[in-house]
Specification:
Elements: E1 29-31, E2 42-47, H1 57-71, E3 79-82, H2 87-97, E4 103-107, H3 113-121, E5 125-128, H4 141-151, E6 155-157, H5 165-181, E7 188-192, H6 197-209, E8 214-221, H7 226-236, H8 242-246, E9 260-265, H9 266-280, H10 286-301, E10 307-312, H11 326-331, H12 335-342
Parallel strand pairs: 2-10, 3-4, 3-6, 4-5, 7-8, 7-10, 8-9
Antiparallel strand pairs: 1-2
Helix pairs in contact: 1-2, 1-5, 5-6, 9-10
The protein binds pyridoxal-5'-phosphate.
Residues 86-88, 192-198, 285, 287, 313-314, 361-362, 365, 372-373 line the site of pyridoxal-5'-phosphate.
Length: 373
């Protein structure tokens, strides 16, 4: 008996591009085939790590800088200052440098070596800031950015939490791509929430095409930081006290675009990340795994013919020395997950820069971000 192995076959549909910036957007949508067996609905994943900076944040970086230049607030040659600790900083630095803008990133002291080195690879100037103090504290990264921009006309800070060109990027690109890629058959869109740009912009576009499309926001329920989720959930469900909490959420979280908010614990998501990799061959970051897990749960009770799309913001590689590292799991109370996927054994030699945690992916997004990636 022979098996047919699909994959690169020599029939080329590969294109040539004039600039790395032309690689932003138009990312693939791939169907799940193994975990969906016997489920009535299909589940697809939008793979945004195909963007050149490695994440969906390239989309917003391009749009934010374009809009700021058009509006005249980002002057030619001005320096970009950013408080994001990962994907957004990389996206802004990458797009910025190709348009003549150098970048400064305010990084928390324990930013992982991996992320620091990626920023340095792009020529970013890294200065210290903190996220473990109140936002009014002069050492908080936002306060450092505020003070720096006030003192220097040549510095420009995007404020991705509130700038309209963040969700507008997803409205202009992610939404139309998904509508086109599913030939208008998409029935559910599932995406993690940090600044809210993805879910708000994509959700708005899709619902304008078909008001019946359901938009599901996903978030981590972090036992170590229960305030994060309970606050988002409280706000979403308009539970008593939500008004005070609302001010903490990024302006770009448009709760009107959400039908449902779903939270899962970090442990169950990391565990499922291994299952996803070993069943579907998809190597994805925790926030992506979270949304796919929820998409599959929805698919189990969905109607035949429903098309559920989960959004994947980045690749597992960014978390290979943290959430997907055996020693990191054992050190962070996830020994049962390590046992399940690496075998029950005393921890061996793996030594990592385990400070790269998903919860730290983008410190500037606190408090919403801290509940997501
Ligand atoms: C890995 C990852 N997943 C999900 C998100 C959520 O995206 P948004 O900020 O559009 O809500 C982010 C945002 O920083 C992210 O870095």
């Amino acid at each position: 008996m022979t098996t047919t192995i699909s994959g690169a076959s020599g029939v080329s549909t590969a294109r040539t591009y004039d600039s790395v910036l032309d690689l932003i957007g138009n990312t693939p949508l791939v169907r799940l085939n193994v975990l969906t067996q016997d489920l009535p609905a299909s589940v697809y994943v939008k793979l945004d790590h195909y963007n050149p900076g490695g994440s969906s944040k390239d989309r917003i970086a391009a749009n934010i800088l374009r809009q700021a230049a058009t509006d005249g607030v980002l002057k030619p040659g001005a320096r970009i200052i950013e408080t994001g600790q990962g994907n957004t900083s990389i996206g802004l630095a990458l797009v910025g440098l190709l348009h003549g803008h150098e970048s400064t990133v305010i990084a928390k002291p324990d930013l992982s070596r991996n992320k620091l080195n990626l920023l340095r690879l792009l020529g970013v100037h890294v200065i210290p800031g903190r996220f473990d103090v109140d936002k009014t504290d002069p050492e908080h990264a936002w306060a450092v950015a505020e003070a720096a921009t006030a003192a220097d006309d040549n510095l420009w800070w995007s404020r991705q939490q509130s700038i309209a060109s963040n969700p507008a990027a997803h409205y202009a690109t992610t939404g139309p791509e998904l509508w086109h890629q599913t030939e208008g058959r998409i029935t559910h869109f599932v995406a993690a929430i940090a600044t809210g740009g993805t879910v708000s912009g994509t959700g708005r576009y899709l619902r304008e095409q078909s008001p019946d499309i359901r938009v599901i926001g996903t978030t981590f329920d972090l036992p170590e930081r229960p305030w994060a989720d309970s606050a988002l959930n409280k706000t979403f469900h308009r539970a008593p006290g939500y008004e005070e909490l609302e001010q903490d959420w990024a302006d770009n979280v448009d709760l009107d675009q959400l039908d449902v908010l779903e939270a899962r614990t970090k442990g169950e998501v990391i565990d499922f990340g291994f299952q996803l990799a070993r069943s579907e061959g998809l190597l994805l970051g925790p926030s992506s795994v979270l949304s796919i897990k929820i998409a599959l749960e929805l698919a189990a009770t969905a109607s035949p013919g429903d098309v559920i799309v989960a959004f994947s913001a980045d690749h597992a590689r960014d978390y290979a020395s943290a959430e997907y590292d055996e020693q990191w799991l054992r050190d962070h109370d996830f020994g049962d997950i390590a046992d399940r996927w690496f075998g029950v054994a005393p921890a061996t030699s793996s030594v990592t820069d385990a400070d790269s945690t998903a919860t730290d992916a983008d410190g500037s997004r606190e408090p919403v971000a801290s509940s997501v990636v």
